[in-house]
Amino acid sequence: MGSGMGAVARAVVLALVALGIWFLSNYESQPHKQNYAAKGATEFSAIRANAALGRIRGPKEIPDPVSSDNNAAVRARIQKEFADIGVKTSTYKAFTCNAWRGFSFIACATVTDIIAEVVPGEGKAIVLLAHYDSVPAGPGASDDKSGVVTVLETARALKARAAQSKHPVIAVITDGEEAGLLGANSFLQNAALKARVGVVVNVEARGTRGQSLLFQTSPGDSKLIDLYAKSVPVMATSSLYAEIYKFLPNDTDLTLFIKQGFPSFNFAFADNVRYYHTPMDTRSNLSRATLQMHGDNMLGVVSALEQTDYASLKGGNDVYISVLGVMLPRIAESLALPFAILVFLGIGLAAWLARGEPFAWKPTLLAGAMPLVLIVGCVAVGFLLTAIAKMISGQPDPTYAYPMNMRIGLGFGVFAVTLLVSRMATLRGAVSSVWLWMAGFGVVTAAFLPGISPYFTFPSFIAAILLLTTARTKSGWSGTVGQVALAVSALGALIVWEALVCSGETLMGLSLHELFTVPAAFGLMTLVPLLAARPMSRGGWMALTGAFVVLSLGCAVAMGLQPAYSAASPQRVNILYFAKGQDKPFWIAASAWKAKGTEQVPASMLKAGFIYKEDAYGGLGLGSGYVAPANDAPSFQMPSATVMSDKKSGSTRTVRIAVHGSSDTSALLFRIPKEAKLTGFATRGQHYDPPKDWSGDTMLECSSRDCRDLDVTLTLGSTGPLTFDFAEQRYGLPPFGDKIKATRPDTAFASQSGDGIILANEVKLP
Hints:
By secondary structure, this protein is α+β, with helices and mostly antiparallel strands. It has 21 helices and 24 strands. Helix content is about 40%, strand content about 20%.
């Protein structure tokens, strides 16, 4: 009885330890507030940077997308801030086009960059990079005016230090980043400006708080990581971030500089993504502690670069992971696989040497399957709890506004699975299986996705040493020394993996919580040997596991009963007035957060007559939405297009089309259907040849006011009849939209391009 109760108590203590490490990881995922106290003149001060942000934003926090009146006003205020610290600025204005990564999307606009001469010198410069434009729906206090004031305060501190620099330092504050990295593109298209660049440090944002993460570097980053580790007070980085970033549909201005081969650092914070590209991206919602960490990173790295020869920055790639902000273990990527194999062999040797029960097939197979069962079981729990919450809530993401119940439920659920599998193996089998699987994943990831391998190989390395040291001790792993070795090994894995759980939610919200159970499973499976060392009685095991299951299900039910959205965490719903040609106009309500699709709009909008429509944008290819008639709206003059020339030569065709919008045009959209077989595009001196893997329709979006009159030349592989859809877009709803806007509750708001007017038309080729 006493032994059984002791085993139950041990399981509860281990659950509390895992919970405590989660709290520690969650605490460490935020910068500490005391770090942004008053700073000296030669240090970065978030207080000073925040004051500059207040001056730059102007009397009102309103959006400043490319080419808008407020965009010009913000630019002038930024230049004044530089002038006030004794830094001379100039501007560079140009029309540019940029094809957006792997998407069939071409962005164009006339943009105006700010170039500031921070530290004089000869040779190629250290570039401090940020952008000042915002999306049409949000004022962009974090994204990316936080970057602008980080650059400003860094420039002020550098001048106060007056250190002798080996390189000049310039600031490039770009325009049109939100429209498609256009300011950076125009800068790099200018040969004289591009020739000035030596190394680049970019600061960005995808939320309003959280750690300033070094989430991307240029290839060959080993020396860059060394410099970073020696230069910043708190480290927050991982080669995993860069590995994942390769597969995400996201870019920053730095993407273009990296493509050009410049050594580069990319810093960003990403917590509270619910306010990203929304009206709530305001100065009051920006964390001062985050701003301080952002500045400490930029000033620390740039100060080190001032004293570094560029040639010394060349090296191979590293794999690495920061631990609690104070350690940054790393090894060369070329050594990742040999190291992982060595660790795997070390654990295998420890398993072979260990004292314990003799070999038998059935227990060995059960033990070998246990970690995989745990991982699959944790994922299944994530999907089950999500399905329950969704079924009760009726919303696709019931965790959006109030995620705590799901966090707790998932915690209970994954630990229930851990308890469930703990009887599948004896102590020796559990230790051998858990750590061979962990090290085995290290070998696989080192071979194919090396940036991820530290999460497996670094904890396994610690375990290999401890397991080898204690395998042949008198009591082996069941004795006090062996148990301490297992506990320390588990502690290392829990710290690494639970930090990943926290950073995953920070970066993506809880919308992918089913997948966050995977890193939780990798951390928790290292506790199984400690549970197996003191197995519970069958009754105690069933009771405790059942209690955790009931608690997790209760949390899922409670999650489903809470509202999915709130005034503090609103749903993203844009309202658009849409008209095409002579057709009757209508209103569209759609989520800008969903690519080419939408989720259900609030009930008040459904009651107002909005109904779902698969192709809501009349052939423009922008996806689905909820539509309602706009019978009482005034009529508008539609944009027009003229075919200026149409020349056919064999199987190819060259077409020149002039498109005309009104003086109120904010952006012009022009859709080239896939059946046109686009092979070349040109406008205003910009030319682009789509790659062979260019998929589907191509959307041209020209986002400055001068785009209202646009002349495009297309080279096509089709000579048959074609229809091109195009549209004039105006940001913001006119007064006659107030009535329909009132149907959107305070638990919803606009985002990305925001509310507006889309006036569409089409032009046909015979």
